[in-house]
Design goal:
By secondary structure, the protein is an alpha+beta fold. Helices cover about 55% and strands about 20% of the residues. β3 and β4 form a beta hairpin.
């Protein structure tokens, strides 16, 4: 304590600044090491996978495609893309269960998305009954029907909960996620 009292202001500032710098470096190293450990855990890999959707990672966004039978104009494709991007951004999930057994593992998540599948069913039902209202020059206007479907998808407020199990395998000490099946991808899009 006498040592610190005898130091002038400049030396005290340098002394405490040096200590703060060393503490900062130690904290940074701890954070980097712990994040690497978590990123190689099946829970960490699951969180990273879901974050790609929530942050509209370009790998995820590039795979958005209209999955119904209609033929869309470029503007309609963009509207659909916007609807799905909104779905991804608002996706909420929780990890329900994590199981590891030697070289295999699984993570179960529960998540909530807009129920686009029901909206599409309702739109198709409406068009089947009232399709004559969507005529142009006396003929059924396919593009007006698609616009109607997209409008229905865009206005969805009802949400639905799904559960997905992600499977993992460990090779050379590193966890890898199995490919996600199409039915689970549809759940994430809300079109299941």
């Amino acid at each position: 304590m006498k040592f610190i009292k005898k130091m002038n202001k400049k030396k005290k500032l340098l002394f405490f600044g040096g200590i703060a710098f060393i503490i900062g470096i130690v904290i940074a190293i701890i954070l980097v090491v712990s994040s690497n450990v978590k990123s190689n855990s099946i829970e960490g890999l699951t969180k990273a996978y879901m974050k790609k959707y929530q942050t509209l990672d370009k790998e995820v966004v590039s795979k958005i495609k209209y999955e119904f039978d209609d033929k869309l104009t470029p503007e309609q494709k963009q509207k659909y893309r916007s609807i799905i991007e909104n779905q991804y951004e608002e996706l909420k999930y929780e990890i329900v269960e994590v199981k590891e057994s030697g070289v295999t593992g699984e993570v179960v998540i529960r998540f909530t998305v807009y129920d686009l599948a029901s909206a599409m069913e309702q739109a198709n039902s409406y068009i089947a009954v009232y399709g004559d209202k969507l005529k142009k020059d006396g003929k059924f206007d396919e593009y007006a029907a698609i616009d109607y479907k997209l409008e229905m998808l865009d206005e969805v407020e009802t949400k639905v909960d799904y559960t997905i199990t992600f499977n993992f395998y460990k090779e050379d000490g590193t966890w890898t996620m199995d490919e996600v099946v199409e039915s689970d991808l549809k759940k994430i899009r809300g079109t299941f």
